[in-house]
């Protein structure tokens, strides 16, 4: 009876530009078990038990990449292969950084708002002195959930903060579990798609 063929699987990990290769063997590795890449870098080749098995890769890898040989006695083998060439699309870090056009720490007092259509000034430069980040849309619901299901904590000692102190600290930050966002004059809130400003800080607008 011929030995069972090994189970071989390759997965493209595009975000980190690698290919994961997994091999499951019926018989454990020995000193004759070897692995290599094809000359064009598109196939993974396994030599085991006198048999040769080949697996097509989802993308090309550098043919010169040195594959470490498996350890004797192992039956489950894994490799990470780098993709060949340079990336043709933005990296994950770049896409994540580009997804946020601005944040509170990047905005200053010299910011001015103008109407895109007519060019009239809506918020004068220097009007907004402080910028704060808006929380995510479900932030308030999560805070309410935490307060309803807050885990048991030991009674506060003289050296540990009390619930009242924690709530006071949250209030000092500008929002708490039951906060409704209503910006004060001179303070602006910002998230990925929204500016939240006080009506007092704006001009040349009509509120409907």
Automatic annotation (TrEMBL):
Pfam families (UniProt xref): HECT_2
UniProt feature coiled coil, ranges: none
GO cellular component: cytosol; nucleus; ubiquitin ligase complex
GO biological process: proteasome-mediated ubiquitin-dependent protein catabolic process; protein autoubiquitination; protein monoubiquitination; protein polyubiquitination
MF annotations from Gene Ontology: cyclin binding; ubiquitin conjugating enzyme binding; ubiquitin protein ligase activity
Highest taxon, organism lineage: Eukaryota
Name of the protein this chain belongs to: Uncharacterized protein
